[in-house]
Design a protein that fits this description.
This protein has 256 residues and is an alpha/beta fold. The chain has one domain: TIM Barrel. The chain has 11 helices and 8 strands. It has helices spanning 16-30, 47-53, 80-85, 96-101, 106-118, 131-135, 139-154, 180-197, 199-204, 215-222, 239-255, and strands at residues 4-9, 36-41, 60-63, 90-93, 122-127, 163-166, 206-209, 229-232. Strands 7-6-5-4-3-2-1-8 form an 8-stranded parallel beta sheet. Helix 7 (139-154) packs parallel to helix 8 (180-197). The chain is globular. Bound molecules: 1,3-dihydroxyacetonephosphate. Residues 9, 95, 167, 172-173, 210-213, 231-235 line the site of 1,3-dihydroxyacetonephosphate (13P).
Length: 256
């Protein structure tokens, strides 16, 4: 069985003091949750402190983005190798907020994905449709385009060392979660697209759900066979809420 992953994407939130308290509470709460992998992705300036505080913790650390370049004159950018050097295991690439605000297209995201893997990080590739795409029946077209950019550039075998996160844009930060049926349909679709290239890679691929996942709706989503965890925004900033989701994932795994 795929090991579930619950990852917190803190986005542009936190402070040294608040992070210390949140991480201490999370570290206490996740002890004994070995059936599920847990990660936090704080803003880049906090990565080193986060890694240091979690030195003896099962909680892994990830970046929220990386450059597609290795090094050089790219003001403000952070190379995947730098994230690796400071102790990251994961990096989110292609988050919809960056696709929208920084105009990252799928080809660029695919280059970031490759840069992350070249540095030894596990990319968490975000895909997902806008509300107007869903309403126009274009969900599968949009998700395919985002996925194919990586499949074409990196090859299906690269997904063996990666995680995909399905995040319907209309569900992010809106309190409007995809229903379990809506999520299940897209997760199954993603796995089937990968299976066309390589069934074994598809079977092993972790596909997370993201978009207003909270402790009280996590169980319904995580019980579904193709949902292998969550990428959590708002609820990852609250120790109790995030732990509730981790516990829901542990319970879902225990039920098989
Ligand atoms: P929310 O959980 O706040 O909806 O954010 C989801 C997300 O964008 C995680 O990357």
């Amino acid at each position: 069985m795929r090991k579930a992953l619950v990852a917190g994407n803190w986005k542009m939130n936190g402070s040294l003091t608040a992070n210390r308290e949140l991480l201490a509470a999370l570290d206490d709460a996740v002890q004994g949750s070995d059936a599920v992998a847990v990660a936090v992705c704080p803003p880049a300036v906090y990565l080193r402190d986060t890694v240091a505080q979690l030195q003896n913790s099962p909680i892994a650390v990830g970046g929220q983005d990386c450059s597609d370049e290795e090094a050089g004159a790219f003001t403000g950018e952070i190379a995947a190798g730098m994230l690796k050097e400071v102790g990251c295991e994961y990096v989110i690439v292609g988050h919809s907020e960056r696709r929208a605000r920084q105009h990252e297209d799928s080809a660029w995201v695919a280059r970031k994905f490759a840069a992350a893997q070249a540095a030894g990080l596990v990319p968490i590739l975000c895909v997902g449709e806008q509300l107007e795409d869903r309403e126009a029946g274009r969900t599968e077209t949009v998700v395919s385009e985002q996925l194919n950019a990586v499949l074409d550039a990196a090859g299906v075998a690269a997904l063996d060392r990666a995680v995909v996160a399905y995040e319907p844009v209309w569900a992010i930060g809106t309190g409007r979660t995809a229903t379990p049926d809506q999520a299940a349909e897209v997760h199954a679709f993603i796995r089937s697209r990968v299976a066309r290239h390589d069934p074994a890679v598809a079977e092993g691929l972790r596909i997370l759900y993201g978009g207003s996942m909270k402790a009280d709706n996590a169980a319904g989503l995580l019980a579904l066979p193709d949902i292998d965890g969550g990428l959590i925004g708002g609820a990852s900033l609250d120790a109790e809420a995030f732990t509730g989701i981790v516990n829901a994932a542990v319970a879902a795994r225990a039920r098989g």
